[in-house]
Amino acid sequence: RASVTGVFRGLVDIGEMVRAGQTVAMVGSQPVQATIDGLVRGLLADGLTVVPNFKVGDIDPRGCREYCFTVSDKARAIGGGVLEAIVGTGGRRRVTGN
């Protein structure tokens, strides 16, 4: 997470293994360090302006490079829930009240 407001610049690539404490990005002149060992699964694009506490990347402690290029379990569950809601209503919106 960013500690300051500034322009983001990544120093590692998606799919790269990192160690806790390693500087993985910069926000302005402030380093962003990995908090855990693992594989970089996601990272913001360079040049974006971020604010303090903004999530700038994702490190997966499982270390499986294949997971960088697949849909996460959480995203799949959310997508499935949305699909069930649409199919369950036949694509029609339900009106409640009065």
How are the SSEs ordered, and which strands pair?
Elements: E1 6-10, E2 17-18, E3 23-27, E4 30-33, E5 38-43, E6 49-50, E7 57-60, H1 73-88
Antiparallel strand pairs: 1-3, 1-6, 2-5, 3-4, 5-7
Structure in words:
With 98 residues, the chain is an alpha+beta fold. 16% of the residues lie in helices and 29% in strands. It contains one helix and seven strands. The chain has a four-stranded antiparallel beta sheet, with no helix packed on it. Strand 3 and strand 4 form a beta hairpin. It is elongated.
What's the mean pLDDT score?
89
Structural class: alpha+beta
Alpha-carbon distance between the termini? 46 Å
* Uncertain runs: none
The number of helices is 1
Residues in β-strands, percent: 25-35%
In the sheet with the most strands, the strands line up as 4-3-1-6
**Assembly context of the chains:** single chain
Q: Which sheet architecture does the biggest sheet show? A: 4 strands, antiparallel
Write the H/E string, N to C: EEEEEEEH
Give structural attributes.
98 residues, three-stranded antiparallel beta sheet, four-stranded antiparallel beta sheet, single chain
